[in-house]
Design goal:
The protein has 398 residues and is an alpha+beta fold. It has a domain at 1-87 and 145-217 and 359-398: FAD/NAD(P)-binding domain (3-Layer(bba) Sandwich). Helix content is 31%, strand content 26%. The protein is built from eleven helices and 20 strands. Helix 2 (63-81) crosses helix 11 (384-397). The model has no long low-confidence stretch (mean pLDDT 94).
Length: 398
Amino acid sequence: MTKFDVVVVGAGIVGLAVAREVLIRRPAATIAVVEKEPRVAVHQTGHNSGVVHGGIYYEPGSLKARLCVEGAALMYEFAEQHAIPFERCGKLIVAVDAAELPRLDALEQRGQANRVPGLRRVGAAEIRDIEPNATGIAALHAPNTGIIDYPAVARAIEGELRAEGVEFFFDTTVTGISDGVSCTVGTDAGPIVGQQVIVCAGLWSDRLARRSGADASPRIVPFRGVYLELAATAEPVVRGMVYPVPDPTLPFLGVHVTKHIDGHVMLGPTAMLVPSRDGYLFRTMRGRDIWDTATWPGTWKIARKFWRTGIEEIRLATSKRAYVAAAARYVPSLTMDSLARGFHSGVRAQAVDRAGTLLDDFAISRSGAVAHVRNAPSPAATSAFSLARELVDRIEAN
């Protein structure tokens, strides 16, 4: 039986950052990272938009608001130290008609309250100066928002951890976690014992929480997002990112246009409930995932509340023309001819409680010597280092 001071379950960017934070504070600690996949960053870390978010959208005082701004600074610092390419290319959030201005005002107030670096309001003429292909009557410009290769960040953290003796258990599925004098992590390769267990399991976080005796709520409900690739042009369609003004009742930001660190530009994403937690292709179905989603009371309450939104997402998912038209409201040069053949997809681990509330903040729970990250959607990658500090602070405080 293998024994460690700390066992981290999950080798996405959050789990890796947590292991790194423990090692910074306790250099002599023995640490294990357990991951069911054969390498790091297979799921949400490897399938997100690559955006280093600025912190505009989040409720002031929330964990997201505080940790995103701090986390972005730490992410840029880590990238510089490890020669990982990144670019502070900036983001425009564009209002195209007067009806959107009150929501833009509210976003500006949030961004200022959250101390988003450099955030400012711009008018129609300056929108064109920043993004020549964009149009609108007003916008928020966040120059510190950037793009990065998060899987490269994850691999760099893995390299740091291995150099300091952290042991990785890949292709190892956790079957249960029991808490006692020490914690036993049951796996399909045998038990692993730790004085402290920290679970950062993303899309499967709720199942591992239940297996350790935690409450069934919140439940992870998977939403698939698809990005369409734009054809390469002599001058990129956007210099950075152009976003619509989002619906404040939803955790999704609408169809936007985003440059990626390798230079290509993507349009998206959609946000559609899917029948598997690894449903990067819609035809992928998992009976257990369907059962967990369909039997959760919160799922049906979401469906009743947001059925109109669901219909619109189906329309976007099934019609490229509708998809392009949604983005052409604020980038009018986009047409069907702008599309390439490629696409990119990811699955968001959205936590939903029994009442049908979409959890909008990071959620951390503890059960004895076991800590769980129960909800870590966007901007979790941006916030990985600051979220790790927060989690380890809470563990040390107790």
